[in-house]
Structures are given as structure tokens and as C-alpha cells.
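haha ok so turns out i had the wrong file open the whole time. this is the CORRECT one, sorry everyone. sequence first:
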Amino acid sequence: MKTSWMNTLTWFAIVMLALMLAVIGPKESSVMGKLPRFGSNSAPSLEPEKMAPAFSADRTLALITFSKKHRPDAESWISGLQLQKDSSISWVRMPVLNDPGDASIRDAMEVRVRSHYAQEPGRGNLLPVFANRNAFVQSAGLNDTEHAYVLVLNRQGEVLARVAGRFDEAKAEALRETLSPNSF
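then structure:
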């Protein structure tokens, strides 16, 4: 008789402990990171009024690159998702450059970056980011600067989905699902 009561009490205690942990435990969030806030000495392209058009949609696809060698990966996403032709996807190309700390050097760097994309139809989707790369990676929840990343961002700059590397149809499908307004 004692054994059945002990089993019942033990089971009840375990259930209560599990419920208590569910209530006080950390909540799982759909946010995987957030773009860092940029100070007043950031590049002109990062002023809120200039960033607003890039993030005017509920969800924006951001192609993040850290070096020239990442451009082919970003291009593979542009062509794979047909971003130049599909106006239903809001997107922005964001090369992340180490901030030199000097406005005139930053301006010269921005002119040089923009000149690389002068002939492209998606040039208006270019938003160079001047920041500490390591801080950017940490804040956005990325792994490193060795890969190009594709992020789905909301209007607040929160990362809702991310993939690394070249275009892949399975990765693209996951991003499309997150880009859909009904996904959350």
C-alpha cells in the first residue's frame, strides 16, 4: 500500500516541478539576434531616415557580406531567389565594413563600395554598414565573419531567420517561410 502512495506522490511532485520550471524558465524567442544600434558617428547611409526605406516592409531579406570573397555568395542568393525580378521580397545588400572612426575615410570607403555596384539594377538596395565587425556578428547572432549570411529582419532589425553560405533551395524555402507574413 505504501508503494502505490509513494509512486503517486513522486509522480505528482515531478509534474509540479515540471510545471514550475515551465513557468519560471526562459521563454523561447523567435528572435535570433538583432542588428546593433549605430552611433551618431556612423556612415551617412546608416542614419535612421536613410535606413527606413530598407526596412519599410514587415520582413526584409538582408544579404550580409564581410569581404569581397563573399560577393559571389550574395549574388547566388540574388539570382537564386530572383530578387531583381520579384518585387514581393524586400531586400537589402549589407556589406559590413570595419569602421575607421573618421567620417572622411568612411565617406571615401562608401563611395568605393558604391562604385562596385554602380552598374547593377539593385544598386538602390545597397546599404553599407560601418561597425566593429565582431560586435556586429555578436549582436546579430552570427557565427563568424568567414561566411556570407542571409538574414530575415523585421522592422526593428531583429533577426528572425538566418542561413550562411551560397544559395541552396532548402535554405531558400526556410527563408521564404519566414518572409511570409503568416509565419509568426
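Residues 57 and 88 are 10 Å apart (CA to CA).
again sry for the mixup
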